[in-house]
Amino acid sequence: MAVETTPQYGLTQEQLDFLEVIRQMVVEKVTPRAAEIDQTGEYPEDIRKLFADHDLFGLPFDEQYGGTGTGDLMLCAAIEEIAKGCASSSLMISGQDLSALPIKLFGSDELKDRILPKMASGEWIGAFALSEPEAGSDPGSMRTRATRVDGGWVLNGAKNWITNSGVADLYVTFAVSDPDVKYSRGITAFVVTADSDGFRIDALENKMGMKGSPTGQPVYEDVFVPDENVIGEVGKGFMVAMQTLDRSRLGIGAQALGIAQGATDYAVEYAKERIAFGKPINQLQGIQFKLADMETKTAAARELLYRAASKVQAGDPDLGKYSAMAKLFASDVAMEVTTEAVQVLGGYGYVKEYPVERMMRDAKLTQIYEGTNEIQRVVIARSLA
Ligand code: COS
Questions:
Q1: Which of 65, 90, 246, 353 has the smallest set of CB atoms within 10 Å of its CB?
Q2: Dihedral angle over CA of 338, 340, 342, 343, nearest 10
């Protein structure tokens, strides 16, 4: 089924050709792995290598840092294509974008030169360590402490719900560097490398979905971070996190969109083959109406997401509102559409031989991470005030 990526969205012919290569690769090599990745819950190193070999880790980066320089719309379209077949695999790319953004937006030239090319090639994987056991929606109340020492900082504390835990080479970590000021003003962002003394990952989560992407709890015990690994200004870390999320939420919208399209496509094909009452079920109006709604909602989510991507690409002042709206809408659509896909398949939808129950479990996370959909509504409502 053709994806809605026509040139009017601003993609060049070269980018559309690249997208076609990605689409083929997903169909041939990623989608067939999705069920096994879900069942074993193992991080798929083979898919990581495949993506690195095809330059997909370069999608969030400028050419100057070894990236593809193809922009936010192309990044979204690629994540969408991957998520159609395997949402966990698409998180490899959106997670790389999320963890690179603080450095791209606020890092020193030295930090960018040192880190971004290795992330763009896929040699290094990044993680974004903001949330804590007691601070998810409210990151301003974090407790991880950064204490000033000669030549740098010492970090103590624990993070929670961190994507790429255990596989990441660097953790963009937010910590309270000045406990005496209003909470969000005393936070600083740091690059912590996984090989730092005193750094470890505690047990990984046993999740409902997105099982091929490890989520865990980084722990910092007297971890020394040199001054050159501070991202942006000391005390401005909260703003670094907020401006990152204003952009990275596009990736979750794209992932949700891909899941929704993948579930719709699967249900459409199933309904052509499945016979009930003497005819294919796609000739029954009860099923037709479901499929029509699934396709319509998914198409609407795509329009909003691509609009948001063009805002982020252009640096428009309302980009944060648009990416929050796109993430909110696309993830709610993904949840509705995948639930309906399970219904179209009936009993087959509920068993693991068919992919739609996995898609439903994967979709749920898109309503929760990078800000719950309730937080997206807060962000959107504040922009209207
Ligand atoms: N861009 C730049 N600066 C921002 C900003 C943004 N989008 N949002 C807030 N800020 C700034 C404010 O201007 C304020 O600056 P000053 O201290 O200089 O006045 C500071 O950050 C604190 O803002 P505020 O008081 O509004 O902070 P809140 O704690 O009330 O923030 C929300 C509220 C909901 C926006 C924030 O807590 C949030 O986004 N939470 C969700 C976090 C999240 O997505 N977690 C998921 C885990 S990451 S995978």
A1: 353
A2: 170
